[in-house]
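Async update (no meeting this week)

Hi team, since we skipped the sync, here's where things stand on the single-chain job. The sequence we agreed to prioritize is pasted below, unchanged from the tracker. I ran it this morning and attached the output directly underneath so nobody has to dig for it. Comments welcome in thread, and please keep replies under the output.
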Amino acid sequence: MKNIKEISPKDLAALKAITFDIDGVIIPTGTELRENADGTELYMKSKQLSRQFLENLKELKKYLKINFSSGRNLLYLKSLVNEIFDESVFLQAENGNLNWFGGAVTHPPYSAGYFQKLKLIRERIKKMIAQGDKRIRGFEPKMFILTLHSDQMEEIPSLVTEADPEGELYCLWTNEGYDVGSRTMSKGRGIEKLAQHLNIRPKEIMTTGNNYNDAEMLQVGTGVTFEPERVEADYFIEHQRDQLGGELLTEFLLEYYRRGRIRP
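Output:
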């Protein structure tokens, strides 16, 4: 991997779009979530984009299409970027399952059997909550994947394997819990779909990430990792205590464009 400062002007000039992961990349990690045992009450608190980052995104839109790809749900993504949202901004939610391109929302088809597996896993975890397992905090509202907030615990991957002997599902640790979904869809597949929509090559999309669910996306696009010890990419950005990696990358790109090498 190379430091992002080593990227060539030629490779920068080839970029047509950029994809930002969310948690730990453009907002601080740390979602508070609590769900009661019967699922009738849900409390969830997350972070917002910084004012300076929003202003920088407004300028960056002059040069690049902007995409946001996350395991989060689509409603959350839309609310997060409402201030800059227009036809040049795209959203990919639930690890590539929901795509908002050109005012239309698309998603892959899944069988009833797929949703039955997710239901079975959810019901078994809810029994653990009802039995007083304090390691489990609850579920984020999702349509096509299951997102559990919990401590890291061996029981969850084992439960998924038991409910899915065919190996149809992935189970990924997110640092706040687990994502469970279909192996046929990923953030990387989502980037391929975005490239098709924009009629460009996937490598003309700069992709960013810091976690395991970003790994394929970082390989499909021109990847920039903010956790090089966890996930690899073409480039990495060095940490700074007072700024997130996505904020630093945006400033780096704007410095390049402001020098006049590319004009809007």
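Quick observations from my side:
The chain is about 30% helix and 25% strand.
The helical segments are 9-13, 51-60, 74-80, 112-130, 155-163, 187-198, 215-220, 245-258.
Reply here if anything looks off.
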